[in-house]
Design brief:
Oligomer: single chain
Strand content: 5-15%
Distance between the termini: 81 Å
Largest sheet: 4 strands, mixed
Shape: elongated
Strand order of the largest sheet: 2-1-3-4
Structural class: alpha/beta
Number of strands: 14
Number of domains: 5
Number of helices: 26
């Protein structure tokens, strides 16, 4: 039974096709007509109650099936009308009698009005909306994908959520593309209804006059009833489906069901009701107007408007102005507690206690200072979401990198401009920028189709040319291929990028101890044997710092500690060459490294010419801290210049620039290029999993002789 139900749709479509061939008795035609009307009504109700179009993603296919069903019924009814003297069931006769009311001309005119209304107004409008929606969605896809990547990099979403949102964007594009084609089916169905109506009326009248010998008036009466009835039983479901098509393609910006949106948005405009009621009341003075009925409608509108206006005024106001005080502390910290204590006593009295002076020496690991116009971003009392977004980023970063970011202190600063902010690490400014809180930042695409009006700027995190645009220009900017970001996300992206680049500086000894204690919960024997008996906390911290500096997650602490133990057991003590130890750990973490820089099973890289690597190996020199690469200035300049050109090839890719070298040269080449390109990633062949396809998109070669 279950298997039979799984093929119910297939059987239904096959039955529809058979309707085009096999004659149906009038009773079954009545059942099919009633089923068609019920199905159309159900589809219309669904389109009005869903919150977004993708909840009813089968609609394009369903539109084809219902149209085919309607055409099958039309063929059956036409066959019966022409072959059985205008009789094709009781449903058609009932609809024909109800509309004609004994007047053939009036009935036909009403029927034609219904058909043309559907064809010209609803179907044509739905077709245009679907066409524009499909084009807009396809044009906006790159911007939406970049916005998802930006949210992922700033920690607002995780990998699973990013995949779901990317799949949703793809499904939206596919859905609106399918709807663009499906509306052509609705249009063709309306045209076919007019043709069928003409065939039934003209063909039936000719057959009736020639074969039956009845009078012309009797024949016209019989076939007009059948024609109008047949047209109505097909046009009413078609009208419902056309309306449903228009509903579903116009739900792009809805927040709830149609009933919820209409109720919420209409009831939120009481003044419009009052003005409309006054305008209707003025109409009552027009001579001949039904004054009583007009005034009743006006009174209802104005009464509803005054009632809703009073109800809105009674609701508590959530917004309140925040009193600006110097050095507002938005998070607890030793300095914040000191400031609170100074409020209770005079500053001189407070600092007479030498212990209180020590509170001034405390440095915050991470600190953000704001100009006064940016404080609403962080103040939760006026809806600021910066703190909650930082919490989300901290959680996501811990899951990705295995390292918990310390608390971030937020405060205002009178030394900054109103729209400026400063990001500090351990008391020193690392980065800063300017945000226009009432605007959106539109990142320019590589090829700008049309420039949008706005204030030119540079995106602070990645240095992308951008424009600050007004909120009303957001949809237009996305249509032109811009990636539009809200002000809070601009700040979060910059903060997250700064923390990712400087996370190794935030890994304190205390945090290393915390990570070790956390590992002890899952691998107590390993920790007790390794730390601090074989591996000191100091050495362990240096290893983790080196990994974080090159963007390698330290979440798999168990593997890291096991490899440290193996190295220690082989050498007796942790070797003096820290780089060699880190290289072995990187090889053990090859699956993690591969996942970070691999897309769809392929990793795009820049390679080093074999001759260049041989020359580099020959130039290795030994110093106090081990081997280092001693290239002559001309060769160094040549390599950096080539690297700058090759990195440009990654600008259109979602992957970070990766240079692939041999294991011997990896760390030395990284130390060579890191001062020039601190964010570049240098990998060795040993750090890439075997199931990955490596694609070289550039090569750095040695200097040609005589150059």
């Amino acid at each position: 039974m279950k298997r039979l139900l799984s093929y119910s749709v297939v059987m239904f479509v096959i039955t529809i096709i058979l309707l085009l061939i096999i004659p149906l008795p009038a009773g079954l035609v009545d059942v099919a007509i009633i089923l068609n009307m019920s199905l159309s009504m159900m589809i219309l109700v669904i389109t009005m109650t869903i919150r977004e179009p993708l909840e009813f993603s089968i609609f394009p296919s369903l539109l084809l099936i219902t149209t085919l069903f309607r055409l099958g019924i039309n063929v059956s009814t036409t066959r019966n009308i022409l072959s059985q003297g205008g009789s094709s069931g009781r449903v058609i006769a009932a609809f024909g009698d109800f509309v004609l009311r004994g007047n053939v001309v009036v009935g036909l005119i009403i029927f034609l009005i219904i058909v043309l209304m559907q064809f010209i107004v609803i179907t044509k409008g739905a077709e245009r909306v679907a066409e524009v929606a499909a084009r807009f969605n396809l044009d906006a896809m790159p911007g939406k994908q970049m916005a998802i990547d930006a949210d992922l990099s700033s920690g607002l979403i995780n990998e699973t959520q990013a995949r779901e949102r990317r799949a949703k964007v793809q499904r939206e594009a596919d859905f609106y593309g399918a709807m663009d084609g499906a509306t052509k089916i609705v249009k063709g169905d309306a045209v076919m209804s007019l043709i069928t109506t003409a065939i039934n009326l003209i063909g039936g009248s000719i057959i009736g006059i020639v074969q039956s010998g009845s009078s012309i008036s009797a024949v016209l009466s019989t076939y007009s009833i059948a024609t109008v009835g047949d047209g109505l039983v097909s046009q009413i479901p078609a009208l419902l489906i056309s309306t449903a098509t228009g509903m579903i393609v116009t739900r792009a910006v809805s927040e709830g069901s149609l009933n919820e949106d209409v109720s919420k948005q209409f009831l939120a405009q009481p003044h419009a009701m009052i003005v409309s009621g006054a305008a209707v009341a003025v109409m009552a003075v027009i001579p001949g107007m039904p004054a009583v009925r007009t005034l009743v409608v006006a009174a209802c509108l104005m009464g509803s408007g005054f009632y809703l206006s009073g109800k809105i005024k009674k609701e508590p106001q959530a917004l309140s102005q925040m009193a600006m005080a110097p050095s507002t502390q938005l998070q607890d910290s030793p300095q914040a507690q000191a400031a609170a204590a100074k409020e209770e006593v005079s500053e001189e009295e407070y600092f007479k206690d030498v212990n209180n002076v020590y509170s001034l020496l405390t440095l915050e690991p991470v600190e953000i200072e704001f100009g006064y116009s940016l404080i609403p971003l962080a103040d939760e009392s006026v809806g600021g979401r910066l703190i909650s977004r930082i919490v989300i980023f901290r959680r996501q970063y811990a899951q990705d990198m295995g390292f918990v970011i310390p608390s971030i202190r937020l405060r205002d600063s009178s030394s900054l401009g109103p729209s400026q902010y400063s990001i500090r690490i351990k008391g020193e400014e690392i980065a800063g920028g300017e945000i226009l809180i009432d605007y959106f930042l539109a990142l320019e695409p590589e090829e700008v189709e049309e420039e949008i009006e706005g204030i030119e700027a540079i995106e602070p995190a990645y240095g992308i040319p951008s424009r600050w645009i007004k909120p009303e220009n957001r949809d237009r900017a996305e249509l032109y291929g811009y990636t539009v970001i809200d002000p809070l996300s601009v700040l979060l992206m910059h903060l997250s990028e700064v923390i990712r680049q400087h996370s190794y500086e935030l890994l304190t000894r205390q945090e290393v101890v915390r990570l070790t204690e956390n590992l002890k919960k899952t691998a107590p024997e390993l920790v007790e044997e390794a730390i601090p008996q074989m591996i000191s906390y100091s050495y362990f911290q240096r290893v983790l710092t080196n990994l974080l500096k090159e963007g390698i997650p330290v979440r798999d602490l168990e593997t890291i500690v096991e490899n440290l133990m193996q190295t220690a057991s082989e050498t007796g003590l942790p070797p003096r060459e820290l780089d060699q130890t880190v290289e072995k750990i990187r090889t053990a973490l090859k699956r993690t490294i591969t996942r970070m820089y691999c897309t769809d099973g392929c990793m795009k890289v820049i390679t080093l010419d074999a001759q260049l690597e041989r020359e580099m190996v020959a130039s290795l020199s030994k110093g106090e801290n081990g081997l280092y690469l001693a290239l002559n200035p001309e060769m160094l300049q040549h390599v950096i210049r080539q690297l700058a050109e090759q990195i440009k090839k990654f600008s259109g890719l979602s992957q970070n620039p990766v240079i692939l070298t041999s294991q011997v040269m990896r760390i030395h080449f990284y130390h060579l290029v890191e001062p020039f390109y601190p964010n570049i990633r240098v990998l060795s062949f040993n750090e890439i999993a075997n199931n990955v396809q490596i694609q070289s998109i550039g090569n750095i070669s040695t200097m040609k002789k005589g150059s």
